[in-house]
Here is the input.
Amino acid sequence: MILNPNAENFGQNYSWEGIKKMLQPEKFVFQEHVAPTSESCHEIIASLKNENARYFIIVGGDGTLNEVVNALYNHAYDTTRVVLALIPSGTGNDWARTHNIPATDKELARLFLDGKIMPHDVGIVCANTATGTQQRYFINIAGFAFDAEVIQRMNKSPLPKKGNKMLYLKNLFLSLLSNKPVRCRLRVDEQVYEKDVFSLAVGICRYNGGGMMQVPMADFSDGVFDIVLIEPLNMFEILTQLPKLYKGTHISYKKIHHYKGREIEIVPQRHIPAEVEGELAGEGAFTVMPALSAINVLVP
Here is the structure.
């Protein structure tokens, strides 16, 4: 168990003690670790490798899930033998939304009793800058340009961020006002496109931004990425297309494009930021590729 007590909805929709009580007659045994920071999460994962731990239950949000995934790969776990389960406790819970993971005691207990273990794709975002390369793994969606600019602006704010939805909406609006489209050369496998970019999402799963179905066609186990590129939109277009983002019906609009591929290269005319599961993943030009090995997840 990797528990993040700083997750926004930690313990609000469920009682971990209640779930444990339901599972005790089935002889489940849990080892609990509290990980309030990314550093503590990585330290715990590193120490558990020596114990041959293979089954991880994450009590937290998308960010905690991302930290665990990165720690597992960075510490060279054999991820083909690892199984992840998530008790969703964050603000957005977008990965859980794709997999229809519930958040009540009884339903979560049934997940551990009746759930299916399935292989799940994992991607790597490599940021290429003048000072070198940095990389981050992701299991949901990697967002570039506007998506990451909102996160950047949030991180610079001195105000408390936990559960501050008004702060998020404020920074979303300010990012819309200040956004400057950037010309990008996008390579998807052997195909090359030149586009002005407002937003670019590379999806393994379907949802981001707290419920927007930005990549509605994504399949988490098909071995390829689905890419949704949004060209610059005027304010009227933003207002008309935003509701469609939540329904996944925006793909048919003339300024929104869908591509599919295994290796993606993004070369902007100026540096743009990237984010994965709400965590910043560098700034510059980018390569996105599959991880060498997938991971396994427990889903209903």
Summary: The helical segments are 16-23, 38-49, 62-74, 94-98, 105-114, 146-156, 165-178, 235-247.
